[in-house]
Amino acid sequence: MDKKDLKIVFLGTPDFAVESLRRLVEGGYNVVGVVTMPDKPAGRGHKMLHSPVKQYAEEKGLFLMQPPKLKAPEFVEQLRSLDADLFIVIAFRMLPEVVWSMPRYGTFNLHASLLPRYRGAAPINWAVMNGDTETGVTTFFLKHEIDTGDVIDQKSISIGPDECVGDVHDRLMMLGADLTIDTVDRILAGNLSSMPQDALEGEPTSAPKIFKETCRIDWSRTAREIHNHVRGLSPYPAAWALLPREDGGEPINVKVFATALIDGTDVVSAMPQVGTPGTIYTAGGRLFVSATNGWIEILSLQPAGKRRMQSDEFLRGYRLASM
Protein backbone atom coordinates (compact mmCIF):
# COMPACT_ATOMS: atom_id res chain seq x y z
CA MET A 1 0.00 0.00 0.00
CA ASP A 2 1.21 3.52 -0.79
CA LYS A 3 1.33 6.02 2.08
CA LYS A 4 -1.17 8.21 0.27
CA ASP A 5 -3.70 5.38 0.46
CA LEU A 6 -3.43 4.85 4.23
CA LYS A 7 -5.83 7.29 5.91
CA ILE A 8 -4.56 8.35 9.35
CA VAL A 9 -6.23 10.16 12.24
CA PHE A 10 -3.75 11.66 14.70
CA LEU A 11 -4.68 12.24 18.36
CA GLY A 12 -2.40 14.31 20.62
CA THR A 13 -2.01 17.52 22.56
CA PRO A 14 1.46 18.75 23.73
CA ASP A 15 4.73 19.63 22.00
CA PHE A 16 5.91 16.04 22.39
CA ALA A 17 3.21 14.98 19.89
CA VAL A 18 3.82 17.76 17.36
CA GLU A 19 7.12 16.43 16.04
CA SER A 20 5.54 13.11 15.04
CA LEU A 21 2.59 14.89 13.40
CA ARG A 22 4.99 17.18 11.55
CA ARG A 23 6.98 14.19 10.24
CA LEU A 24 3.79 12.54 9.01
CA VAL A 25 2.54 15.66 7.24
CA GLU A 26 5.86 16.67 5.73
CA GLY A 27 6.58 13.06 4.79
CA GLY A 28 3.48 12.96 2.59
CA TYR A 29 1.42 10.58 4.75
CA ASN A 30 -2.35 10.98 4.45
CA VAL A 31 -3.47 12.60 7.72
CA VAL A 32 -7.23 12.98 7.25
CA GLY A 33 -7.98 14.31 10.71
CA VAL A 34 -6.43 15.57 13.96
CA VAL A 35 -8.00 15.28 17.43
CA THR A 36 -6.77 17.38 20.34
CA MET A 37 -7.96 18.75 23.67
CA PRO A 38 -10.53 21.57 23.78
CA ASP A 39 -9.13 25.06 24.31
CA LYS A 40 -8.88 26.13 27.93
CA PRO A 41 -8.44 29.49 29.70
CA ALA A 42 -4.98 30.22 31.06
CA GLY A 43 -3.22 33.00 32.95
CA ARG A 44 -4.63 36.00 34.75
CA GLY A 45 -6.50 37.22 31.69
CA HIS A 46 -8.05 33.78 31.12
CA LYS A 47 -7.05 33.95 27.48
CA MET A 48 -8.01 30.77 25.66
CA LEU A 49 -4.98 28.52 25.25
CA HIS A 50 -4.65 26.40 22.11
CA SER A 51 -2.73 23.13 22.34
CA PRO A 52 0.53 22.87 20.37
CA VAL A 53 -1.07 20.16 18.22
CA LYS A 54 -3.98 22.47 17.39
CA GLN A 55 -1.62 25.27 16.48
CA TYR A 56 0.27 23.03 14.07
CA ALA A 57 -2.91 21.48 12.60
CA GLU A 58 -4.42 24.90 11.88
CA GLU A 59 -1.14 26.14 10.40
CA LYS A 60 -1.18 23.21 7.97
CA GLY A 61 -4.92 23.35 7.25
CA LEU A 62 -5.64 19.90 8.67
CA PHE A 63 -9.17 18.85 9.59
CA LEU A 64 -9.37 19.42 13.36
CA MET A 65 -11.66 18.02 16.05
CA GLN A 66 -11.74 19.08 19.74
CA PRO A 67 -14.40 16.93 21.42
CA PRO A 68 -15.20 17.68 25.09
CA LYS A 69 -16.36 14.06 25.44
CA LEU A 70 -14.80 11.22 23.51
CA LYS A 71 -17.90 9.03 23.80
CA ALA A 72 -20.25 11.72 22.47
CA PRO A 73 -22.26 10.21 19.59
CA GLU A 74 -21.72 13.23 17.35
CA PHE A 75 -17.94 12.96 17.73
CA VAL A 76 -17.91 9.20 17.19
CA GLU A 77 -19.97 9.60 14.01
CA GLN A 78 -17.74 12.43 12.78
CA LEU A 79 -14.70 10.26 13.38
CA ARG A 80 -16.28 7.27 11.67
CA SER A 81 -17.16 9.40 8.63
CA LEU A 82 -13.44 9.92 7.97
CA ASP A 83 -13.16 6.19 7.23
CA ALA A 84 -9.59 6.14 8.59
CA ASP A 85 -7.42 3.03 8.38
CA LEU A 86 -5.20 3.84 11.36
CA PHE A 87 -5.29 5.99 14.51
CA ILE A 88 -2.07 7.24 16.10
CA VAL A 89 -2.18 8.46 19.71
CA ILE A 90 0.61 10.48 21.35
CA ALA A 91 0.23 12.14 24.76
CA PHE A 92 -3.55 12.34 24.65
CA ARG A 93 -6.41 11.15 26.82
CA MET A 94 -7.50 7.62 27.58
CA LEU A 95 -9.66 6.52 24.64
CA PRO A 96 -12.91 4.57 24.90
CA GLU A 97 -13.08 1.29 23.01
CA VAL A 98 -15.63 2.70 20.58
CA VAL A 99 -12.85 5.00 19.36
CA TRP A 100 -9.68 2.89 19.49
CA SER A 101 -11.32 -0.17 17.95
CA MET A 102 -12.65 1.78 14.95
CA PRO A 103 -9.88 1.68 12.31
CA ARG A 104 -9.13 -1.55 10.43
CA TYR A 105 -5.41 -1.44 11.24
CA GLY A 106 -6.09 -0.55 14.86
CA THR A 107 -4.80 2.25 17.06
CA PHE A 108 -1.21 2.50 18.19
CA ASN A 109 0.22 4.72 20.90
CA LEU A 110 3.69 6.21 21.19
CA HIS A 111 4.72 6.13 24.85
CA ALA A 112 7.83 7.80 26.30
CA SER A 113 9.26 4.83 28.18
CA LEU A 114 10.50 1.32 27.64
CA LEU A 115 7.28 -0.46 28.51
CA PRO A 116 6.34 -2.20 30.72
CA ARG A 117 8.32 0.29 32.83
CA TYR A 118 6.68 3.61 33.62
CA ARG A 119 3.08 3.18 32.62
CA GLY A 120 1.23 6.41 33.27
CA ALA A 121 1.17 10.16 32.78
CA ALA A 122 4.76 11.22 33.54
CA PRO A 123 7.18 8.52 32.36
CA ILE A 124 10.09 10.82 31.46
CA ASN A 125 10.03 12.63 34.80
CA TRP A 126 9.95 9.45 36.85
CA ALA A 127 12.75 7.79 34.88
CA VAL A 128 15.06 10.72 35.64
CA MET A 129 13.81 11.19 39.22
CA ASN A 130 14.53 7.52 39.93
CA GLY A 131 18.08 7.83 38.61
CA ASP A 132 17.63 5.51 35.62
CA THR A 133 20.52 5.44 33.17
CA GLU A 134 18.37 4.36 30.22
CA THR A 135 14.94 5.16 28.85
CA GLY A 136 13.27 5.17 25.47
CA VAL A 137 10.06 5.14 23.46
CA THR A 138 7.59 2.39 22.67
CA THR A 139 4.83 1.94 20.12
CA PHE A 140 2.05 -0.43 21.15
CA PHE A 141 -1.55 -1.25 20.26
CA LEU A 142 -4.21 0.13 22.56
CA LYS A 143 -6.42 -2.08 24.67
CA HIS A 144 -8.64 -1.56 27.73
CA GLU A 145 -6.03 -1.14 30.47
CA ILE A 146 -3.85 1.95 30.06
CA ASP A 147 -0.34 1.42 28.62
CA THR A 148 -0.65 -2.39 28.68
CA GLY A 149 -1.17 -3.25 24.99
CA ASP A 150 1.03 -5.46 22.83
CA VAL A 151 4.34 -3.81 21.95
CA ILE A 152 5.20 -3.15 18.32
CA ASP A 153 8.69 -1.68 18.65
CA GLN A 154 11.04 0.20 21.00
CA LYS A 155 14.05 2.50 20.74
CA SER A 156 16.30 3.41 23.68
CA ILE A 157 18.68 6.18 24.74
CA SER A 158 20.99 6.66 27.71
CA ILE A 159 20.37 9.28 30.41
CA GLY A 160 23.39 11.25 31.61
CA PRO A 161 24.00 11.49 35.39
CA ASP A 162 23.39 15.25 35.37
CA GLU A 163 20.92 15.49 32.48
CA CYS A 164 17.62 17.22 33.24
CA VAL A 165 14.21 16.01 32.15
CA GLY A 166 13.83 18.84 29.65
CA ASP A 167 16.81 17.58 27.67
CA VAL A 168 15.66 13.96 27.85
CA HIS A 169 12.16 15.02 26.74
CA ASP A 170 13.51 16.75 23.65
CA ARG A 171 15.68 13.78 22.65
CA LEU A 172 12.80 11.34 23.17
CA MET A 173 10.49 13.59 21.15
CA MET A 174 12.79 13.25 18.13
CA LEU A 175 13.38 9.53 18.71
CA GLY A 176 9.64 9.02 19.12
CA ALA A 177 8.96 10.68 15.78
CA ASP A 178 11.45 8.28 14.17
CA LEU A 179 9.67 5.33 15.75
CA THR A 180 6.22 6.61 14.76
CA ILE A 181 7.26 6.77 11.10
CA ASP A 182 8.98 3.37 11.31
CA THR A 183 5.80 1.84 12.75
CA VAL A 184 3.58 3.34 10.04
CA ASP A 185 5.99 2.13 7.35
CA ARG A 186 5.85 -1.40 8.76
CA ILE A 187 2.05 -1.29 8.61
CA LEU A 188 2.25 -0.11 4.98
CA ALA A 189 4.70 -2.91 4.16
CA GLY A 190 2.48 -5.52 5.78
CA ASN A 191 5.25 -6.90 8.00
CA LEU A 192 4.01 -5.68 11.37
CA SER A 193 4.26 -7.92 14.43
CA SER A 194 3.76 -7.31 18.13
CA MET A 195 4.28 -9.07 21.43
CA PRO A 196 2.64 -8.99 24.87
CA GLN A 197 4.39 -6.83 27.44
CA ASP A 198 4.82 -9.75 29.83
CA ALA A 199 7.18 -11.27 27.26
CA LEU A 200 9.53 -8.29 27.61
CA GLU A 201 12.24 -7.72 30.20
CA GLY A 202 11.50 -5.60 33.24
CA GLU A 203 8.73 -5.47 35.79
CA PRO A 204 5.76 -3.14 35.25
CA THR A 205 6.18 0.16 37.10
CA SER A 206 3.95 3.22 37.30
CA ALA A 207 4.58 6.86 36.41
CA PRO A 208 1.67 8.71 38.04
CA LYS A 209 0.74 12.31 37.41
CA ILE A 210 2.96 14.79 39.25
CA PHE A 211 1.40 17.17 41.77
CA LYS A 212 2.85 20.11 43.70
CA GLU A 213 3.64 18.04 46.78
CA THR A 214 5.45 15.48 44.60
CA CYS A 215 7.86 18.26 43.67
CA ARG A 216 8.83 19.28 47.20
CA ILE A 217 12.43 18.45 48.07
CA ASP A 218 12.86 16.07 50.99
CA TRP A 219 16.25 16.94 52.48
CA SER A 220 16.25 13.73 54.55
CA ARG A 221 16.95 11.76 51.38
CA THR A 222 20.47 11.13 50.10
CA ALA A 223 22.28 13.80 48.11
CA ARG A 224 22.10 11.65 44.97
CA GLU A 225 18.36 11.12 45.38
CA ILE A 226 17.80 14.86 45.83
CA HIS A 227 19.96 15.62 42.78
CA ASN A 228 17.91 13.15 40.71
CA HIS A 229 14.68 14.61 42.07
CA VAL A 230 15.66 18.13 40.99
CA ARG A 231 16.85 17.21 37.50
CA GLY A 232 13.80 14.98 36.98
CA LEU A 233 11.57 18.04 37.41
CA SER A 234 13.71 20.65 35.64
CA PRO A 235 12.70 22.92 34.03
CA TYR A 236 9.06 21.95 34.48
CA PRO A 237 7.22 21.67 36.79
CA ALA A 238 10.36 22.25 38.94
CA ALA A 239 11.33 20.98 42.38
CA TRP A 240 10.74 23.40 45.23
CA ALA A 241 11.80 24.02 48.82
CA LEU A 242 11.37 26.47 51.69
CA LEU A 243 14.64 28.14 52.72
CA PRO A 244 14.86 29.69 56.22
CA ARG A 245 15.52 33.44 56.53
CA GLU A 246 18.26 34.74 58.79
CA ASP A 247 15.78 37.01 60.61
CA GLY A 248 13.39 34.14 61.32
CA GLY A 249 10.72 35.54 59.01
CA GLU A 250 8.55 33.68 56.55
CA PRO A 251 10.66 31.04 54.74
CA ILE A 252 11.55 31.77 51.13
CA ASN A 253 9.69 29.56 48.67
CA VAL A 254 12.04 28.74 45.79
CA LYS A 255 11.96 26.55 42.71
CA VAL A 256 15.24 24.66 42.32
CA PHE A 257 16.39 23.98 38.76
CA ALA A 258 19.96 22.73 39.09
CA THR A 259 22.08 21.15 41.81
CA ALA A 260 25.52 19.56 42.08
CA LEU A 261 26.86 16.76 44.23
CA ILE A 262 29.82 17.60 46.46
CA ASP A 263 32.69 15.12 46.41
CA GLY A 264 36.37 15.00 47.29
CA THR A 265 37.37 17.10 44.30
CA ASP A 266 35.10 19.97 45.30
CA VAL A 267 35.68 20.70 48.96
CA VAL A 268 34.89 24.14 50.29
CA SER A 269 37.49 25.38 52.75
CA ALA A 270 36.36 25.02 56.36
CA MET A 271 33.12 23.40 55.30
CA PRO A 272 31.45 22.03 58.44
CA GLN A 273 30.25 18.52 59.07
CA VAL A 274 26.83 17.73 57.69
CA GLY A 275 24.13 18.90 60.05
CA THR A 276 20.45 18.10 60.35
CA PRO A 277 18.97 17.51 56.87
CA GLY A 278 17.91 20.86 55.43
CA THR A 279 20.66 22.84 57.19
CA ILE A 280 21.95 25.74 55.07
CA TYR A 281 25.62 26.63 54.56
CA THR A 282 26.84 29.50 52.36
CA ALA A 283 30.39 30.36 51.36
CA GLY A 284 31.85 32.50 48.58
CA GLY A 285 28.49 33.06 46.90
CA ARG A 286 27.72 29.34 46.91
CA LEU A 287 24.68 27.76 48.52
CA PHE A 288 24.77 24.32 50.11
CA VAL A 289 22.07 22.30 51.88
CA SER A 290 22.67 19.18 53.95
CA ALA A 291 21.12 15.93 52.87
CA THR A 292 21.07 12.82 55.00
CA ASN A 293 24.55 11.74 53.88
CA GLY A 294 26.32 14.88 52.68
CA TRP A 295 26.06 18.35 51.22
CA ILE A 296 24.35 19.22 47.95
CA GLU A 297 24.92 22.52 46.16
CA ILE A 298 22.07 24.56 44.69
CA LEU A 299 23.22 26.15 41.44
CA SER A 300 20.09 27.71 39.97
CA LEU A 301 16.82 28.71 41.62
CA GLN A 302 13.84 31.03 41.40
CA PRO A 303 12.19 32.77 44.37
CA ALA A 304 8.40 33.05 44.14
CA GLY A 305 7.43 36.03 42.00
CA LYS A 306 10.98 36.56 40.73
CA ARG A 307 12.99 35.35 37.76
CA ARG A 308 15.32 32.39 37.64
CA MET A 309 18.86 33.18 38.83
CA GLN A 310 22.18 31.66 39.84
CA SER A 311 22.84 31.11 43.54
CA ASP A 312 25.41 33.90 43.91
CA GLU A 313 22.87 36.44 42.66
CA PHE A 314 20.20 34.99 44.92
CA LEU A 315 22.47 35.29 47.97
CA ARG A 316 23.09 38.95 47.24
CA GLY A 317 19.39 39.62 47.66
CA TYR A 318 18.41 37.18 50.38
CA ARG A 319 19.98 36.41 53.77
CA LEU A 320 19.49 32.83 54.89
CA ALA A 321 19.72 31.22 58.29
CA SER A 322 22.92 29.23 57.86
CA MET A 323 25.64 27.52 59.89
Automatic annotation (TrEMBL):
Coiled-coil intervals, chain numbering: none
Residues annotated for (6S)-5,6,7,8-tetrahydrofolate binding in this entry: 113-116
Pfam families: Formyl_trans_C, Formyl_trans_N
Annotated ranges, domain Formyl transferase N-terminal: 7-179
Cellular component, GO annotation: cytosol
Formyl transferase C-terminal domain residues: 209-319
EC number, UniProt record: 2.1.2.9
Single GO MF descriptor: methionyl-tRNA formyltransferase activity
Keyword terms of this UniProt record: Protein biosynthesis, Transferase
Annotated PANTHER family: METHIONYL-TRNA FORMYLTRANSFERASE, METHIONYL-TRNA FORMYLTRANSFERASE, MITOCHONDRIAL
Family, as annotated: Belongs to the Fmt family.
Listed name of the protein: Methionyl-tRNA formyltransferase
Source species taxonomy: Bacteria, Pseudomonadati, Bacteroidota, Bacteroidia, Bacteroidales
Gene name per UniProt: fmt
